[in-house]
Amino acid sequence: MMNESNERIVVKKPLSMQAKKYSGKVMIIAFIAFVLILTYTPIIVMALTSFSTDPLGYRLNGVTTEWYQKLFDNGDLRDSIVFTLEITFLSTIISTIFGTLSTIGINSLNLKAKRRFIILNNIPILNADIVTAAFLLVIFQIISIVIRVNVISNYSFITTLIAHVLFSTPYVVLSVMPKLSKDNSLFDAAMDLGCSPYKSLFKVIIPSISSGIFSGALLAFTMSIDDFIITYFVSASNDNFSTWIYGNLKTLRNGQWNQACAYNTVLMFITFTAIIVYQLATNRKKVEK
């Protein structure tokens, strides 16, 4: 008689297959650990330096918060931080607005024109910073000759702001475009339901691509706040934080390096906090839906 029992037959894998699977997992974990260590070690060292009592920041002899308290006592460092934050926030706001509106306009074109504009948008992203910086320098020099005023020296804030907006806007377009391309009928549907073009834009389109706008703004913020090459070329009379570090790298003493690390630590903490809060809020919305 045939055995009609429902006993489960367990087939054991050969030891060689189990060993390969285990070694594969170990390699993946080791690779991820290596990447994390390589990525976060400079951040950890920077944070430790900001709390070090050593005024040169090379040794961790003790722990102190003195450098955070003296962060704005250094006039040149304070001015560079203020200049950096002003340029960064203004360029982020302007490039986010320009990039979002440009993306909406590009998305409304036919497929052939849309592809051409996307290629044009990607060229500044792929272009080397030194080429962009040299091009902007030439443009500002030509304007200086035409109006007979040294634009870079006299309007350093404006030239730096223009430069940062120009190289940040393509990143916003690159972030918003995938979100906008998911559903091209939202605007038409809103118009059919009686919304005006203005209401359709601000009540339907922008809320639906808000995550892409935030990602683009974060990219623009990141690209602007630590830019060195372009700022070095187009800003003659003002230093942002990176150009200040470059100009004073050989003469940093009396805790200046520790103060610079303190600024970077505060900035990193704020950035991480903003990303975590945004991610938690996004996940909560998904759960509620």
Describe this structure in words.
This protein has helices spanning 15-50, 66-69, 75-107, 111-126, 129-147, 151-154, 156-180, 186-192, 197-208, 210-225, 229-234, 241-248, 256-288. By secondary structure, it is an all-alpha fold. The protein folds into 2 domains: 18-70 and 257-289, no CATH class; 74-254, MetI-like (MetI-like fold). Helix 3 (75-107) runs antiparallel to helix 10 (210-225).
Main sheet record: none
Report strand %. under 5%
Class inferred from helices and paired strands: mainly alpha
Number of helices: 13
- Could you give the count of β-strands? 0
At CATH's second level, what is the architecture of the largest domain? Orthogonal Bundle
Number of domains: 2
CATH level 1 name of the largest domain = Mainly Alpha
| CATH superfamily heading of the largest domain | MetI-like
The CATH topology of the largest domain? MetI-like fold
What portion of residues is helical?
over 70%
Please tag this protein with its features:
13 helices, MetI-like fold, mainly alpha, 289 residues, disordered N terminus
List the helices and strands and how they pair.
Elements: H1 15-50, H2 66-69, H3 75-107, H4 111-126, H5 129-147, H6 151-154, H7 156-180, H8 186-192, H9 197-208, H10 210-225, H11 229-234, H12 241-248, H13 256-288
Helix pairs in contact: 1-13, 3-7, 3-10, 4-7, 7-10, 8-9
Summarize the structure.
The chain has helices at residues 15-50, 66-69, 75-107, 111-126, 129-147, 151-154, 156-180, 186-192, 197-208, 210-225, 229-234, 241-248, 256-288. By secondary structure, the protein is an all-alpha fold.
